[in-house]
Amino acid sequence: MLTKKQIEYVLETMGEMFPNAECELTHSNPFELTIAVVLSAQCTDALVNKVTPHLFDKYKEPEDYIQAPLEELEQDIRKIGLFRSKAKNIKKLCQSLIEDYGGEIPTEKSELVKLAGVGRKTANVVASVAFGEPAIAVDTHVERVSKRLGICKWKDSVLEVEKTLMRKIPMEEWSDTHHRMIFFGRYHCKAQSPQCPECPLLEVCREGKKRMKKRGVVV
DNA sequence: CTCCCGATAT
DNA sequence: ATATCAGGAG
Fold first, then answer.
1. Are the CB atoms for A122 and A179 separated by under 8 Å?
2. Is the pLDDT of residue A115 over 80?
3. Judgement on whether residues A97 and A157 belong to the same structural domain of the protein
4. Secondary structure class of A74 (helix, strand, coil)
5. Are residues A12 and A97 both part of a single domain?
6. Does the C-beta of A193 come within 7 A of strand C?
7. Protein chain A, residues 161-190, with a C-beta closer than 7 Å to any atom of nucleic acid strand B
8. I need a labelling partner for A30 at 20 to 30 A (CA). Which of A40, A117, A131, A145 fits?
9. Is the shortest CB-to-strand distance from A119 to strand C under 7 Å?
């Protein structure tokens, strides 16, 4: 496991690698962001961004999603995959926005998770990106990077990863850390082909050193 | 734990 | 051609 000092170094290095890391989902208000994050479940942000320009042009308010026939909404988001469940969730989500939240996205995580299609990860993204709340959304990238580096244990659940990160990282750095780890995971420490040989974190990375050894490279 | 599903990397 | 990617609901 990495020490606090090592984690500091890791975050600093990621910051140097990706100084402009931020949410990559196209959106112009909390409502659009929420829809985009719901769509992004089990799907890349890049793909979501291909669908949302048309979607946000056509559906401005919760009412617009409610009024559209389900089949039409499904077709509008079909490229995303899992489109039937997501279309249903979005309709439900908009319904409760109107009924329970005055048509606005709630700012509290505890309220966000009550919305259809919004789980812990999505709630954290919305709270953090839309409302500036300190949060670390543990998506697949954050989880993979944390585990490969040795910030947490391999068998930790997503929730345990989140708790560990919150424990080991000062709160004012949660938001930046979250985005840096996502960029690091998405563009460098990739799921299929991690760029270990060129990684500036190789010397502190548990998994990286193991992979190098496997290939007979001395690090 | 299984189902939901299309896009993209290999 | 097919393995892998990417969260939440039931």
1. no
2. yes
3. no
4. helix
5. no
6. no
7. 190
8. A145
9. yes
